[in-house]
Amino acid sequence: MRRLGLLLLLQRVTAFERIACLGDSIVRGDTTHEDEDEQESGKFDRGNYPDILSDLLGGTTCENFGASGVAVDPAAKRYLENSRWDDAVDFDPDLAVIMVGVNDAKEKLDVDDYEEGYEEILEEMEKNMKKLEAIYIIVPFNIIGTCCSIDMDRYNDEISVATLNFCLGQQGDYKGIPITCLDIRDEWNSRTGCGDCAHQGGYDACSDACWAYYDPDDGIHTDASGSQLLAELVYEALPNQPTRAPTPSPPPTPRPTAYMPTWRPTPAPFPQPTPRPSFA
Questions:
Q1: What is the pLDDT of residues 226-248, one digit of tens each?
Q2: Are 137 and 180 in contact (CB under 8 A)?
Q3: From start to end of the chain, where are the E strands?
Q4: Considering 13, 38, 192, 236, which has the largest number of Cβ atoms within 10 A of its Cβ?
Q5: Whole-prediction pTM value?
Q6: What angle do the packed helices 224-237 and 185-192 form, to 10 degrees?
Q7: What element of type H or E holds 236?
Q8: How many helices (H) and strands (E) does the chain have?
Q9: Residues 6+ apart with CB under 8 A from 207
Q10: Residue 126 to residues 123, 183, 247, Cα–Cα distance (Å)
Q11: How far apart are CA 98 and CA 27, in angstroms?
Q12: Cβ-Cβ contacts under 8 Å for 57 (sequence gap 6 or more)
């Protein structure tokens, strides 16, 4: 029995060995993973979900390649032109988890340009990440405040929908690399107690319990609790992991007491992706 438990534990730990967490400043978080001269003390009150995910997984290496101000739209400050993207390519992950798009809410959304930009990101992944076995595209949680010319309604109503539609449009894979569409919005709203407050104007429409998961300066970025939850939702979506992540001890901040349903991402109704060809 002990040996069986050990085998199951090893199976959970080794599903992926190198996970690259890609995205914008929400992913970048508190900057404490960066070289000391690149860290920004004004962001230290945020969380760092890739670091927490690494702790949850134990033997898996998770690296944070978030970059501030980057966008999907090719006409904006493109993520693909940032040095953190180059670092992610050099890291050569077997899983890429991407959550990006908040800065695309600064201007009127052109869905065609947005999808073109996301297509280019996938193309560069497939071309340059030689060990890549899977891609997770996160449809992000709602924001409940704003800053930096980001339009809250545009992000919550348009960017999220465009991201999900693009992901589902890949029909389960990109050139043989399996794609998972990880829509975390409903589960985020349930576990945080935020409910539908983001669509009721955010800010004062959202409870203190909801705000406890966000950077109080803007309602966009996550604090320690929000980063913990984000890491848990990614963790629970990975193969061979339990339906609920281990509870941190002690938890970063008190959580609202509410019914929390067991959650697993619902697979899109698409055929199994064709295995990626291997070349001699």
A1: 999 999 999 999 998 877 777 55
A2: yes
A3: 18-23, 61-66, 95-99, 134-139, 173-174, 177-183
A4: 192
A5: 0.83
A6: 130
A7: helix 224-237
A8: 10, 6
A9: 193, 194, 197, 256
A10: 5, 22, 35
A11: 9
A12: 13, 19, 235, 238
**Rounded to 5 degrees, what are φ and ψ at 108?**
-55, 130
d(CA 69, CA 58): 31
Tokens of 111: 């869905």
Listed as ranges, residues in the chain with pLDDT below 70 are 1-14, 247-280
For 77-123, give the DSSP string: SBGGGSHHHHHHHHH--SEEEEE--GGGGGS---HHHHHHHHHHHHH
For residue 256, is the peptide bond before it cis, meaning its omega torsion is within 30 degrees of 0? Answer: no
- The dihedral over CA atoms of 80, 77, 39, 58, expressed in degrees to the nearest 10, equals -40
pLDDT attached to residue 276: 52
Give the residue from 22, 36, 91, 55 showing the smallest Cα distance to 224.
55
SS3 20: strand
For residue 276, the one-letter residue type is R
pLDDT at 268: 43
pLDDT tens digit string along 96-130? 999 999 999 999 999 999 999 999 999 999 999 99
Contact 73, 110 (CB under 8 A): yes
Cα–Cα distance measured from residue 38 to residue 19, given in angstroms and rounded to the nearest whole number: 22
Neighbours of 110 (CB within 10 A): 14
Q: Which two tokens stand for residue 154?
A: 């545009």
118 alpha carbon, distance to own chain's centre? 15
